[in-house]
Amino acid sequence: MPGFTMPESLPEGEEKVAAVRGMFDAIAPRYDLVNRIMTFRMDVRWRRRTVRALGLPTGSRVVDLACGTGDLCRELAAQGLQPVGADLSFGMLAAARTEAPLVHGDALRLPLPDGSVDGATCGFALRNFASLPPFFAELARVVRPGGRIALLEVAEPPNRVLRWGHGVYFGRVVPLVGGLLSDPSAYRYLPRSVAYLPEPEVMLADLAAAGFTAVDRRLLSVGIAQLVTATRQR
C-alpha cells in the first residue's frame, strides 16, 4: 500500500483496527518470505504442532482467524481437516495461497452461526486485535460445545539470558530485515506490539471466563513462541 506508515506510538481501539488493517495490506506481498527468514522456518513447525494440538477427527470444520495468506489453512487441510479462513485485510486475502474458502471479516464479529465450527485456530494475531476478551467470547460463540481452539503467538523466553538475546533479535534484527524486504514501519511496530499481550495467567483466566475448559499454555522453541489450547465447555 503506497504511502502507508504505521504510527510510532501503539494505537488503541478503532485506530488500532484501522492501522493493523493498513499494515497487513501493505506487507502482504512479502509476508510469507519475511516470516520464513525471521523464524528460520520454525514457524512452519509451530503451525504443524498447532493443528495437531486441536485433536479433532478427520473432516472437522475449523475456522482460521486472521488467516493471512493461508499458512494455517494449508496445514489444516494437510492434516485432513476442513478449513475456512477469515481476515480483516483484503491485501492478505488477495495474496492467500490456499484452496480453503476465505471470508473478509472482523474476528470480533464473525459472519458465522452459533456453534457452526468444530474448532478454531489463530496464528500470531492475538496482539493485533482491539481487545482479547471480546475475541474469546466470539470464539466461544462460533465453536460448538466440545470443540477445540489452538492459538499460536509469540512469547518471551523465561530464561534471563535467552530473553535478553531474543529481545535484541526481535527488537533490532527483525525491524532491519523486515525493513529491507518489506515495509519498515510495519516491522518496527510488530516487535513493539508484544506489549499488547496480557500476562499469561490473565489470558488463560479470560478464556475460562469466556466458556472454555482444559485451558493450557505451552512454550515452544525455548519460549520464543507460545501455544494456547482449550476446549469449548459443553
Largest sheet: 7 strands, mixed
Structural category:
alpha/beta
Number of domains: 1
Mean pLDDT: 94
- Strand % is 15-25%
User: Order of helices and strands, N to C?
Assistant: HHHEHEHEEHEHHHEE
Task: Provide structural commentary.
The structure is a single chain. The chain is α/β, with parallel strands linked by helices. It has a single domain, classed as 3-Layer(aba) Sandwich (Rossmann fold), CATH 3.40.50.150. The protein contains 9 helices and 7 strands. A 7-stranded mixed beta sheet has the order 3-2-1-4-5-7-6, sandwiched between helices. A hairpin with a 4-residue loop joins strand 6 (212-220) and strand 7. The chain starts with 12 loop residues before the first helix and ends with a strand. The mean pLDDT is 94.
Write the layout of secondary structure elements.
Layout: H1 13-27, H2 31-39, H3 42-54, E1 61-65, H4 71-78, E2 82-87, H5 90-94, E3 102-104, E4 117-123, H6 132-142, E5 143-154, H7 160-181, H8 184-192, H9 200-210, E6 212-220, E7 225-232
Parallel strand pairs: 1-2, 1-4, 2-3, 4-5
Antiparallel strand pairs: 5-7, 6-7
Helix pairs in contact: 3-4, 6-9, 7-8
Which keywords apply here?
234 residues, alpha/beta, Rossmann fold, seven-stranded mixed sheet, 9 helices, globular
Short description:
The chain has 234 residues and is α/β, with parallel strands linked by helices.
